[in-house]
Automatic annotation (TrEMBL):
Keywords: Methyltransferase, S-adenosyl-L-methionine, Transferase. PANTHER family: CHEMOTAXIS PROTEIN METHYLTRANSFERASE. InterPro entries: Bact_Chemotaxis_MeTrfase, Chemotaxis_MeTrfase_CheR, CheR_C, CheR_MeTrfase, CheR_N, CheR_N_sf, SAM-dependent_MTases_sf. It comes from the Bacteria. Pfam families: CheR, CheR_N. NCBIfam families: PRK10611.1. PROSITE patterns: CHER (PS50123). One of its GO terms (biological process) is methylation. It catalyses: L-glutamyl-[protein] + S-adenosyl-L-methionine = [protein]-L-glutamate 5-O-methyl ester + S-adenosyl-L-homocysteine. It comes from Mixta theicola. This is Chemotaxis protein methyltransferase. GO terms for molecular function: protein-glutamate O-methyltransferase activity. Residues 18-289 form the CheR-type methyltransferase domain. The lineage of its organism: Bacteria, Pseudomonadati, Pseudomonadota, Gammaproteobacteria, Enterobacterales. S-adenosyl-L-methionine binds at residues 95, 97, 101, 132, 157, 215-216, 233-234.
Length: 291
């Protein structure tokens, strides 16, 4: 009787292969990556982010068939206009979002919009995959109506990959669990057949949101301001104090008189800038207008 051969299960073999092929990320290369993403996008990478950086960038190296982080960094630095820079930024950008995230902001937005005259104009500064700007648009459509000239939402992000998803307006149905049945029916189309379980934003709502790529560190912002409200939520946490102050200063002329600035739950803009004061839960107004 022949001795049976013990074979490792496929997943074990794959794991073993990945361990053998792990590329070294030296302290020097990690520091250089941190410097480059700070220069390009203002993102500060702490030491504890090293494993995250490795896991995200190693995919780019393998896609490009590069077996050394030094060679990858040289590829970037030898061509300041290389398309790989955008892939580098996309890889290191964190995109955590959800429909009606930090839900207390939306009744405040609705009440503010009711009291304003003319077309209501909003900027979502970190649109990610679209959940925030579509939540803003739904709130305004329910408050002001969805007719032409009622409101507009300008949505920007530094990451081109997430903007592609946002522009498509296609989501898994489970991602819309915070929406009411009325909102689902009014603003989304359900997929059928092979698209079952998926939904798409209706064109009437999608037409009120304009998506564009924008780096908050860029010298110039091409924006259709000024705005009645600016959403800058859970963005500043990735920047150092100097960058935070600079961005907040640039928001000032972009807010209409009486406009609102919405922040994330862990951000305190009045501690960063004297230009803004806290007027509600993570909602700010311009200090010069404070009565």
């Amino acid at each position: 009787m022949k001795k049976s051969t013990l074979l490792a299960p496929p997943e074990s073999a794959t794991l073993l292969s990945q361990m053998i092929q792990r590329l070294p990320l030296s302290d020097t290369h990690f520091r250089r990556i941190s410097q480059l993403i700070y220069q390009r996008a203002g993102i500060v990478l702490a030491d504890h982010k090293r494993e995250m950086v490795y896991n995200r960038l190693v995919r780019r190296l393998r896609t490009l068939n590069i077996d050394d982080f030094g060679r990858y960094l040289a590829l970037l630095e030898n061509d300041q206009n290389s398309a790989e820079w955008q892939a580098f930024i996309n890889a290191l950008t964190t995109n955590l979002t959800a429909f009606f995230r930090e839900a207390h902001h939306f009744p405040i937005l609705a009440d503010h919009a009711k009291r304003r005259g003319g077309s209501y104009n909003v900027w979502s500064t970190a649109a990610s995959t679209g959940e925030e700007p579509y939540s803003i648009a739904m709130t305004l459509a329910e408050t002001l109506g969805a007719g032409p000239g009622k409101f507009s939402v300008h949505a920007s992000d530094i990451d081109t990959q997430v903007l592609e998803k946002a522009s498509s307006g296609i989501y898994r149905q489970e991602e819309l669990r915070t929406l009411s049945q009325q909102q689902m029916q009014r603003f989304f189309l359900r997929g059928t057949g092979p698209h079952s379980g998926m939904v798409r934003v209706r064109s009437e709502l999608a037409g009120m949101v304009n998506f564009t790529q924008l780096n908050l560190l860029a010298h110039e912002w091409s924006l259709p301001g000024p705005f009645d409200a600016i959403f800058c939520r859970n963005v500043m946490i990735y920047f150092d104090k100097e960058t935070q102050e600079k961005i907040l200063r640039r928001f000032v002329p972009l807010l209409k008189p009486g406009g609102l600035l919405f922040a994330g739950h862990s951000e305190n803009f009045s501690q960063i800038s004297k230009e803004f004061y806290l007027r509600g839960q993570t909602v700010y107004g311009l200090t010069k207008e404070r009565s």
